[in-house]
């Protein structure tokens, strides 16, 4: 396996009928796959200065922590409601049926800190858009939104038009 795509497993009809889930578990199980993916994610950032890296719950945590370490930056978890122990700021977003929300600690970002947002997949863009709003409410500057893969047919990038959006893979 010499390409990152070789480590992504397709799971038909998960989590419901008609969805083809892109599973990164085989990638995470391979030290070589993780190394290759991390190198590609770092190339997307280039020499931009990053103060903090946000990982979006939960699969975004895996590479966000590695990116933060390589970039000599802090790591910030953004989680579903009720999962963070300190005071939080919350942002809701629309789902296909209903809505959900994400939260960040209120002291996670200082004014004008340069923020990299990372998640495994950019699908419809609702979660990433909500995270961008949280960063801006706390005074951070979004340098880039990074993803391992982008499902372009779902047009999630359209919700992030004002940001620099990059992905290693595009489907």
From TrEMBL:
Domain Phosphoribosyltransferase: 39-156
Location(s) in or outside the cell: Cytoplasm
Transmembrane segments: none
Biological or metabolic pathway of the protein: Purine metabolism; AMP biosynthesis via salvage pathway; AMP from adenine: step 1/1
Keywords, comma-separated and alphabetical: Cytoplasm, Glycosyltransferase, Purine salvage, Transferase
Entry keyword annotation includes Transferase: yes
Main subcellular location: cytoplasm
Pfam families xrefs: Pribosyltran
One CC-aspect GO term: cytoplasm
EC number(s) reported in the record: 2.4.2.7
Alphabetical GO biological process terms: adenine salvage; AMP salvage; purine ribonucleoside salvage
Gene3D superfamilies linked: 3.40.50.2020
One Gene Ontology molecular-function label: adenine phosphoribosyltransferase activity
Catalytic activity: AMP + diphosphate = 5-phospho-alpha-D-ribose 1-diphosphate + adenine
Function description: Catalyzes a salvage reaction resulting in the formation of AMP, that is energically less costly than de novo synthesis.
Binding partners and assembly: Homodimer.
Family per record: Belongs to the purine/pyrimidine phosphoribosyltransferase family.
Protein name, as recorded: Adenine phosphoribosyltransferase
Organism: Pontimicrobium aquaticum
Lineage of the species this protein comes from: Bacteria, Pseudomonadati, Bacteroidota, Flavobacteriia, Flavobacteriales
